[in-house]
Each structure stands twice: as C-alpha cells, then as structure tokens.
Amino acid sequence: MDITWDVAHARLSHDRMLHIARALISMRPEAVTLGGGEPLDVPGLFEIVGMFRSAGIDIVLRTNGKSMHPSMVRTLLESCARIEVCAMAFTHAMHALRLLDIGASRLGSFAVFGLDATGIRRGFDRLEEFCATTAFELPRLGFIAFSESLGSDHAQYLQSLAPQSVRVTVETANTSVVRAS
Fold first, then answer.
1. Is the pTM of this model over 0.85?
2. FRET pair for 113, CA 20 to 30 Å: which of 21, 64, 105, 171?
3. What is the mean predicted confidence (pLDDT) over 76-80?
C-alpha cells in the first residue's frame, strides 16, 4: 500500500503533523508521497521525512522546485526514494533539477529524480527544448513523465528526443507506457 499526503495543503500545527505521521506509519505503507502545494515550505518537513525513513517507509517528494535551496539537496537526495519535480513552472523546475543533479554528482547513492510534466497545461515548447537539450545536460536525471493529454504523436516525438538513459513514461488514464531504456 502507498499513501499520498498533501501535507502542504493541510496547514497543520507541528504537533498535529507528528500525530498524523505516526498514524500513517502505523498503517505500514511501503511508500508515502508528500505533495499538495509545496511540501518544501512546510516547517518540520525533514523531521516528518526522518520519521518515515526510520520506520523503513520510502518517501516520494512532489515539488515544484520553487523553494528548493542548495542546503536542502543532500538531505532530499539521501532521504527520499524519488523526487518528482513538477513542470508547472519551468524556471523553478529547471533550477531544482540542476541542484539535484549537482548534489547527486557528489553522492554515491541518491534518490531517483526527474521531471513530472503530467500536469503541464502550457509551455509544451519548453518540453521539446527540455527533451532535446536540457535533459542531456543532467546526466543523473532518472525520468521524464508525460501525460496522454499531449497526444500520442507528440508524446512519441518527445520520447524520441530524450536521452536513451532516461526512463520516459506517458501516463494514461489506466496505465503507463514506458520506453525501454
């Protein structure tokens, strides 16, 4: 079982967050996804992440990257199993992906991270640029996720531009189509 906690939307007191984290841990999920707005803005987030990790639960972080600071990168890469940087604001997403790539270059083991473009509603031209150029500048980039809303021909075109070492998925209503890498 996996759990998604929109921790940033909740706007809970620190004590209430700790209480909910303990309740979620008692459910023994394999993974907890932290998202909902910008989780990096939540005071005490790293304490919550530490609680899940101590319980052997994988953390998936969904961030827009806007609040990512270089001082957070090592902790994120060491504490999370996966970091999904959402492409809603490309400038912030690119900044976060570059920080993660630089941080990962200094670590032997690190979280899988990549671009989640499944929620993008404009800026499709930026996706083409990302796949054709920027993705090649991020040697530790792990994945790019697209939505079927791009249209299958456009999604296949973007997949063909991306580095072969990057896992590319196209999320559909019922399944994911993955390009073998």
1. yes
2. 21
3. 96
